[in-house]
Amino acid sequence: MIPNCSLPTIPFASKLLVDYVSYRKYYDTHYLQFIPFSKINEWIEEEVVTCGKSVLFADSEKIELQRQNFERSYPKIKFYTGKEPLLKDALQLTLYSSIYSKVPGLFQSITESGLEQGLCNNSIKAELKFVMNNTKKIIVENPARFANDGDKFKPQKLESSFVTLFVIMGVLTGVGIFCFLFEYGKGNGGRLVKRLLGWRDGVQVEIPKLRGG
To answer: Transmembrane segments in this chain: where (predicted)?
Structure first.
């Protein structure tokens, strides 16, 4: 768990624990190792609910159950879970006492000040610059190889594009009419086809008569 709010912490000895040995001696001789899990869960719930910046890490199944429990207990608070799971054996830094360590505060300062995002952006810019420089270097070393690449892709003329569009529309229209006549060939469509064919035969028969007269 990564706490980001100032909540009550576990009480330690009044004197300063300057090294790991003194810390372990105090830990082994006091009640810290006998804290029940229910109390730890209460502290976790208090931290997550009170502070909107704390992050809880656990197994996917436990996280899902914990989220459902939080949503039932606190319907007015929105809880979010990460979409991409972390590695099973994630790398971590164990600190013997977060009270005397500056690492959590440094992490918080780096993330909240925007320094982490700035470093990420700078790394992306540096990588992009590296790729561009290498690309230019490759082109300079072998210019003949990339000189004729533009000739391989010839732009299409606007007039030919319009002609192609009209041809496609005509084909689609013809296919649509054929499907319509085929679908209704036994009904009104069939009678319509017969009338059209009869009108065509009548025109072909009467035209020679008019010319002969």
So the answer is: 162-185
